[in-house]
Specification:
The protein is globular. It has about 80 residues and is α+β, with helices and mostly antiparallel strands. It is built from 2 helices and 4 strands, in the order ββαββα. The longest helix has 20 residues. The strands form 2 sheets. Strands 1-2 form a two-stranded antiparallel ribbon. The structure holds zinc ion (ZN).
Length: about 80
Amino acid sequence: MNDGDQRIVCSLCGFEFPMSQARATVCQTCPLHGQCRLLIKCPNCGYENVLVQAPGWLQSLLSKAGAWISARKSRKK
Ligand SMILES: [Zn+2]
């Protein structure tokens, strides 16, 4: 599947960005290095946007988990 041209609108700040750009930049700071298919991180505000269709509570949980993983990684620097 080629998702390189897909554009994401951040559900937190409304910033629009290409998925390929986020995968190549902000997602490289994640331990999964952009291999994750569940989350995409907003380059503008750092919010973990959930890509899958899921109930609101599950999207919220996934977003928090993604933010937690990213925070752990960046704290090690
Ligand atoms: Zn954002």
